[in-house]
Amino acid sequence: MAQLTARTVLSTISKRTLIPTAIAGRRGLATEASPEDYGYYPDPLEHATGREKKMLLARLAGDDRYEPKVYYRAESSTKERPNLVPSHFPDRIIGCMCEF
Q1: How would you classify residue 7: left for phi > 0, otherwise alpha for psi between -120 and 50, otherwise beta?
Q2: DSSP string covering 25-69, please?
Q3: What are the binding positions for Zn(2+) in this chain (predicted)?
Q4: FRET partner for 74 with CA separation of 20 to 30 A, picked from 3, 21, 60, 95?
Q5: Within the chain, what is the greatest distance between any pair of CA atoms?
Q6: Is 31 one of the annotated binding-site residues?
């Protein structure tokens, strides 16, 4: 008899705890946030300062320091008229993928 009573009480308690979760599980979910409700994303350039802002402005101007720059060899390059490759240092190491 005690086992039957315990089973009845436990099954009643477990049914009552599942009801609120089942109701909450039926609600609809938003698929996308409306910019009018939450606002728009700020522009990173407006938020950036210092070195980060200089880097973003340089990237917008087309000078990305991590993008390799390709300089093509002129057809009429000689020792007197060399191909100039800009550098910040007095010595340079230049790799040439030339076909001779």
Answers
A1: alpha
A2: HTS---SS--HHHH-PPPPHHHH--HHHHHHHHHHHTT--TTSPP
A3: 96, 98
A4: 60
A5: 110
A6: no
Q: Which of 68, 99, 64 has the alpha carbon at shortest distance from 85?
A: 68
Percent of the chain past pLDDT 70, that is, above it, reads: 69
Written as one letter, the residue type at 36 is E
Alpha-carbon distance of 57 to 49, in angstroms, equals 11
Give the global pTM: 0.36
Q: For residue range 65-94, list pLDDT tens digits in order.
A: 777 777 777 788 787 888 777 777 787 766
Q: Could you tell me the two tokens for 42?
A: 């700020």
- The pLDDT, as a whole number, for residue 83 is 79
Determine which helix (DSSP H) or strand (DSSP E) holds 74, and give its type and residue range. none
- Rounded Cα–Cα distance for residues 30 and 20 (Å): 21
Q: Are 65 and 51 in contact (CB under 8 A)?
A: no
98 is in an annotated binding site: yes
